[in-house]
C-alpha cells in the first residue's frame, strides 16, 4: 500500500512538472498570438465603419445593421500605411515638411509633452537615434551588486554632474525602469553582449539564455 502511494506521488509530481513545462512553453506564444489577433480584430471592426460611407456597395450591412467585415483588411491597411509613411519621410521635400511639423508639435503647449515623450520612447528603440545600444553593468546598490542597464548619455554635464554617466536600468517583466547618474568607476561595459540580448535578459528576469558574442 505504501509503495502504491509512493508511485502515485511520483506520477503526480511528474505530471505537475510536465504541466508547468508545457505552460511555460505555451503561455508566451498564446498570449502573443491573442494580443496580435485582438488588435487586428479591433482594427477590422473600425475600418468597415470608416469605409462604408465611401464604398456602400463594397461593404454592406446585414439585416441587423451590422457591417460586413473583411478579415485581414485592417492588417493590410496598417502595414501599407506604415510603409507609405516610411517611404515618404525618406524623400527630401517630405522630410523637410515632417521636420517642420515636428518642430510645431514640440512647441505646442499641451501636445508638446505627449508628442515628445512618445517620439523619444520610439527613437530609443529604433531609427537613427537609438539610445539603448550600449549595454553595461552598473553598481548602484551594494559593493558587489550589479544591474544590467544601458548608457543613454556619456556625460551628465547638462544636469550639473560633469564627468558622470547617465544609465537607464529597465525593470523585469515591465515596461518601466530607473535612470541613474553614476561615475564611470561604477560601470562595466558589456562588449561581449548585444543590446537586444541584454534587454531580453533583463526583461525576462534573467531566465533567457544569452550567448557570448566573442565565441562567434
Question: What's this, in brief?
Answer:
The protein is an alpha+beta fold. The protein is 50% helix and 12% strand.
The proportion of strand residues reads 5-15%
The counted number of beta strands is 5
Query: Portion of residues in helices?
Result: 40-55%
- The helix/strand class is alpha+beta
**Strand-and-helix sequence, N→C?**
HHHHEEEEEH
| Rg, Cα atoms, Å | 25 Å
Distance between the termini: 56 Å
What can be said about the biggest beta sheet?
Answer: 5 strands, antiparallel
Quick one: overall form? flat
Average of the residue pLDDT scores: 76
Could you explain how this protein is built, in words?
- The chain is of the alpha+beta class and 216 residues long.
- The chain folds into three domains: 1-90, no CATH class; 91-128, no CATH class; 135-215.
- Helix content is 50%, strand content 12%.
- The protein is built from five helices and five strands.
- Strands 4-3-2-1-5 form a five-stranded antiparallel β-sheet, covered by helices on one side.
- Strand 3 and strand 4 form a beta hairpin.
- The longest helix has 50 residues, at 2-51.
- The protein is flat.
- The chain starts with a helix and ends in a 13-residue tail after the last helix.
- The relative contact order is 0.06.
- Mean pLDDT is 76; it is low at 212-216.
Amino acid at each position: 500500500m505504501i509503495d502504491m502511494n509512493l508511485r502515485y506521488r511520483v506520477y503526480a509530481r511528474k505530471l505537475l512538472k510536465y504541466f508547468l513545462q508545457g505552460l511555460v512553453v505555451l503561455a508566451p506564444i498564446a498570449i502573443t498570438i491573442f494580443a496580435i489577433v485582438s488588435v487586428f480584430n479591433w482594427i477590422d471592426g473600425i475600418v468597415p465603419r470608416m469605409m462604408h460611407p465611401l464604398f456602400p456597395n463594397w461593404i454592406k450591412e446585414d439585416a441587423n445593421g451590422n457591417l460586413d467585415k473583411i478579415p485581414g483588411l485592417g492588417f493590410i491597411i496598417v502595414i501599407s500605411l506604415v510603409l507609405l509613411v516610411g517611404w515618404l519621410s525618406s524623400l527630401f521635400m517630405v522630410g523637410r515638411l515632417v521636420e517642420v511639423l515636428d518642430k510645431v508639435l514640440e512647441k505646442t503647449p499641451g501636445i508638446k509633452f505627449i508628442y515628445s515623450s512618445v517620439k523619444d520612447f520610439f527613437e530609443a528603440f529604433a531609427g537613427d537615434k537609438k539610445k539603448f545600444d550600449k549595454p553595461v553593468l552598473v553598481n548602484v546598490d551594494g559593493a558587489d551588486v550589479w544591474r544590467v542597464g544601458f548608457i543613454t548619455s556619456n556625460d551628465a554635464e547638462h544636469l550639473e554632474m560633469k564627468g558622470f554617466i547617465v544609465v537607464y536600468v529597465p525593470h523585469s517583466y515591465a515596461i518601466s525602469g530607473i535612470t541613474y547618474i553614476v561615475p564611470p568607476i561604477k560601470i562595466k561595459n558589456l562588449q561581449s553582449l548585444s543590446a537586444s540580448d541584454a534587454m531580453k535578459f533583463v526583461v525576462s528576469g534573467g531566465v533567457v539564455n544569452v550567448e557570448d558574442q566573442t565565441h562567434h
